[in-house]
Predict the structure.
Amino acid sequence: MDKTVVVEVKRTVFDPMYKKIVRRRKRYKAHDEENQYKVGDKVTIMETRPLSKDKRWRVVRVLSLN
């Protein structure tokens, strides 16, 4: 995917049925204009107009490099 990064957001939530803390993850496809971000980089994304079928986010800045 040219000019696209997949950002994974992990979080933990309490499951009311099983009374345990479980891990959830969500993946977002975000636009990366210069193809500058690599695997393992932590980035900030923001919502934008639809850029393709699945892309509705774009990378704002990098928080830490891999």
